[in-house]
Amino acid sequence: MKIGITCYPTVGGSGIFATRLGVELAKRGHEAHFITYERPVAIQDQDYENVYVHLVSVVEYPLFKYPPYTVALGSEMFRITGQQDLDLLHVHYALPHSTAAFLAREITGKPYVATLHGSDVTILGSDASYMPVNTLSLERADAVTAVSNFIAKEAHESLGISREISVIPNFVDSDRFKPAPCTDPEANNSNDVTVTHISNFRPVKRIQDLIYAMNIVTKKAPNARLVLVGNGPERHRIEKLVDELNLGNNVEFTGYRSDVPNLLGCSDVVVLCSETESTPLTLLEGMSCGLPVVATEVGGIPEIVDDGVNGFLVPLKHPEAIAERILELNADPGLRKRLGDAARATVMDRYTIDKIVCQYTEVYEEITSA
Ligand code: GMT
Q: What CATH number did the domain enclosing 54 receive?
């Protein structure tokens, strides 16, 4: 099949996932045509067979305070659908992509599927300034999927969507992210744990809670380390907090890294303390590497983490609870191994590429044969 894919090309889980899905579809003989305003970051440095990128050009004009991106995107979707003879469009993150696809279908008649990821439902999609058109573009889609039951439920409740939404969780590359020994000679070789957190440093991640937790942890485990991978708007505030709490020797900021599997190979625990999440890729990556996770009991996280079985769930905004679980894992390598093995088994059972990609191709078959 020839699939037009639209996503945010920059760093963000929905764009990363959409790009990985496109690459996997291409490996399986489909054509993936990305229609975006920039080459997606996840394929920045590499070309793949059957993967194409079509850039949306948005005309600047002095009259515009807000250039009409949705119109430009819809027009490019229309143009590429005809030029490449696409079978369907798959848009990731509803805002404003499903609206552009809705407009394009008015002209091409080709179906579109919209995948809901997170704030396109929970924060922005239900805001009064976007909701009527966002909801209409989803109600009228040929198929709607959500990456967690939580997001599907929220779409029904907050966006008022009445149609069926299929839940297809995100996948992780379990061959790339797998249990492996640490190969970094400079890694923490003390008896205390290395904790890893990976994010785009947005406020929703509440990294400050993890810093306060580390302030408690290091009182009992002075060589415990926190590795913060990624970059974003909160980074300076978090760096300042680390300085204020005198945690400079325990906390490392790596910036964006392409060797995340290596970093996880030298980690003992993955923590995610966000205010909300759907199916966070970073949790799946840590679990796939056989690491126990400590994560807030919010959004779609409890659909992945079974408390005390493959990780620990902690209440939101509760640094003490995070610290308690990290210290428990620090003190008990057997517990780390038991939860980590179960985490890897969870991934192999439910979140591998093969288990997820075919669920999308089934949706494509259904909407193109209708
Ligand atoms: O919704 C967002 O805040 C952004 C979105 C993104 O593009 O990064 O993240 C969401 O989608 C990811 C991919 O499915 C999930 O891994 C994240 O959990 C989800 N984030 C939130 O719900 C906050």
A: 3.40.50.2000
